[in-house]
Amino acid sequence: MKRMLKPLAALAAFALVAGAQAADFPAKDKPITIVVPFSAGGPTDRVARDLAEAMRKPLGGISIVVDNAAGAGGSIGANKVAKASADGYTLLVHHIGMGTMPTLVRNIPFKVESDFEYLGMINDVPMTLIGRPSLEPANYKDLVSWIGKNKGKVNLGNAGVGSASHLCGLLLQNALQVDMTTVPYKGTAPAMTDLIGGQIDLMCDQTTNTTSQIEAKKVKAFAVTTTKRLTTPSLKDLPTLQESGLKNFEVTIWHGLYAPKGTPPDVLKKLNEALKVALKDPDFIKKQEGLGAVVVTDKRAEPAEHKKFVQAEIAKWSPIVKAAGVYAD
């Protein structure tokens, strides 16, 4: 019996320390860091910076900084958070990559489903299928016919392995049962430049990157990847891929908030409550709408539903990535 006292005493002491940390969280003099696993200036970075500002007030006005740790399909930044102290001061904002990394990244140094605490979803970002301005087809139906007649000659650009545009392109080829020549770039900007210039034929990318180009008629828009048409004035007349014949085709680039595994429950509760306040902030909603994003208003803002959603995404993308045989090293 005496041998049990030390372990029990240690456990009790740990519980007291953890409880004290949770009660004091967040400390006024200790900033929270949100890690973004992509370069500064991109869509995920902008979402994280808007969220940081919106979460400051419900967390007592503390400082929240953004740290960009890009590379390896988003796994470098994610690993940084997975290995961080589980005290609530290091968080992760990641996109659909949380659903694809388990298959896409070789020798991934963490487990998506068990090395993080899920705090809640942030938004959904629709995608658009666009082409070079000189492309012959006038609509999606004509485009499918044109792709069929030019097998092996169609160039499909993306922003790099593991990027949103890469994933959308994989799903599109899988749904159409055709192979296109995939052309990866180091970011959306150079890919868009070549699309506008006619060096590549097609790209499937987020509305955050394509809306302004569509409005300026610098690219030709064919369809959106949501199940319902968008309400954005410049995109409202675009058909969905599903209504155009690709049954059950839907892909949106979502973002979620995570903490290291083992973060105290009371700290997680405070972070989730702050997130839900931020998701209702009019200024945050307006900024997200300006990016073409839709702020989450359903149960996915809760940790359990967030995790359930990511698990479903892992199951959805795993066979597609494996079939494509592509990896982010």
CATH topology of the largest domain: D-Maltodextrin-Binding Protein, domain 2
| Number of DSSP-assigned strands | 11
Give the H and E element order: HEHEHEHEEHEHEHEHEEHHEH
The biggest beta sheet reads: 6 strands, mixed
Structural class: alpha/beta
* Rg over CA atoms: 22 Å
Task: Write out key terms for the chains shown.
alpha/beta, D-Maltodextrin-Binding Protein, domain 2, five-stranded mixed sheet, BUG, 329 residues
Write up this protein:
- With 329 residues, the protein is an alpha/beta fold.
- The chain has two domains: 23-125 and 253-324, 3-Layer(aba) Sandwich (D-Maltodextrin-Binding Protein, domain 2); 127-224, D-Maltodextrin-Binding Protein, domain 2 (3-Layer(aba) Sandwich), CATH 3.40.190.10.
- 43% of the residues lie in helices and 18% in strands.
- The chain has eleven helices and eleven strands.
- The chain has helices spanning 2-24, 43-56, 75-82, 97-104, 140-149, 164-176, 188-197, 207-215, 265-278, 282-290, 303-324, and strands at 32-36, 64-68, 90-94, 116-125, 127-131, 155-158, 181-184, 202-206, 220-224, 253-260, 294-295.
- Strands 2-1-3-10-4-11 form a six-stranded mixed β-sheet, with helices on both faces. Strands 7-6-8-5-9 form a five-stranded mixed β-sheet.
- Helix 2 packs antiparallel against helix 10 (282-290) and helix 4 crosses helix 11 (303-324).
- The mean pLDDT is 90.
